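Hi R.,

As promised on Friday, here is the backbone we talked about, encoded as structure tokens. Could you run it through your design pipeline when you get a chance and send me back a sequence?
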């Protein structure tokens, strides 16, 4: 874990949220409520477990897949932060964690590609990612997800309220929902 934990700036976050994960499996408990982010996280689980189970023959392909996935996944989250003016105080720490994780993956990928490290080191990277992810999702991505939903849909309150309005709505009338959404 040393590469993932090296930055003092948020070492306390990592320590607080990292624990050993035997097997990372997708389940509804990992859903955060922002659909496109949940899709990224589902893919994260898939590519990281493929890396954890990789063999000498498949390790480099699995590393390339994790690297490509993480670049896209993190870029998307950064784009959402920018678009929704996610407060700096939260985004700085969040981006730092992404940068460190990506640096570790780049390093292991490069060394593995030239034969400097073996399968054990590749599997240790996969384990680090498995241990890191639940805490990062709980602590950092969940606040971003809630923020995005709050910015784009007026937050969870509107979702609940929309259901209520649906029940009461006069057939053919859209006005109840519009009035309600503006009020929220
Ligand atoms: Fe994420
Ligand atoms: Fe993130």
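Update: got your reply. Pasting your designed sequence below so it's all in one thread:
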């Amino acid at each position: 874990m040393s590469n993932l934990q090296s930055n003092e700036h948020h070492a306390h976050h990592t320590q607080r949220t990292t624990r050993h994960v035997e097997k990372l499996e997708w389940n509804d408990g990992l859903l955060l409520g922002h659909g496109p982010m949940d899709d990224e996280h589902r893919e994260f689980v898939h590519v990281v477990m493929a890396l954890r189970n990789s063999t000498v023959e498949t390790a480099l392909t699995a590393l390339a897949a994790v690297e490509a996935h993480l670049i896209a996944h993190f870029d998307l989250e950064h784009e959402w932060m920018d678009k929704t003016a996610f407060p700096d105080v939260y985004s700085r720490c969040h981006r730092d964690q992404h940068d460190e994780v990506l640096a570790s993956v780049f390093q292991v990928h490069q060394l593995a590609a030239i034969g400097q490290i073996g399968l054990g080191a590749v599997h240790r990277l996969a384990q680090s990612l498995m241990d890191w992810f639940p805490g990062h999702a709980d602590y950092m991505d969940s606040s971003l997800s809630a923020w995005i939903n709050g910015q784009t849909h007026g937050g969870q309150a509107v979702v609940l309220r929309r259901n209520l309005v649906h029940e009461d709505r006069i057939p053919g009338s859209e006005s109840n929902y519009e009035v309600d959404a503006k009020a929220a």
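One thing I noticed while checking it: The helical segments are 2-5, 11-17, 35-52, 59-83, 88-113, 119-153, 156-168, 175-183.

Thanks again,
M.
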